[in-house]
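Following the same procedure, sequence and fold were stored together, as reproduced here.

>
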Amino acid sequence: MKYNLSKIRSKSAYTPKEASALLEVNRKTIFRWIKGGLSLLDPKQKPRLIMGKDLKAFIKAKREATQVKLRPNEYYCLVCRKPVEGKHGTQKVEKTGKKIGKLNRDQEILYAKCKECGGKIARLL
């Protein structure tokens, strides 16, 4: 899930209730993050307080842990849950009709079949 990190002020302290409202998640999510390594200002103090910079760093670390770097000839297969190459001869390119970048170039999608499971895989170009 994408969280709007620009709402979090680094030098402010938040209670779990305030943090959950700020990020638009359930309060239990914040407590799960605390059990998962999100540091508190003082663990013995009530109410529990979370520094904004720690919250931002925790969310960024969670994002980086789930991202997968792909090489130019790889796709991410949702069935295999890993980067794979497409079967030879199954690749096709389609234009999306959108223009991207400063040069207004056409956006394209590259479709293929997974080499391992045979499922459909796609990648934006």
User: Anything to note?
Assistant: The mean pLDDT is 90. Strands lie at 13-14, 50-51, 74-77, 82-85, 92-100, 105-113, 120-124. The first strand starts at residue 13 and ends at 14. Residues 52-66 form the longest helix (15 residues).
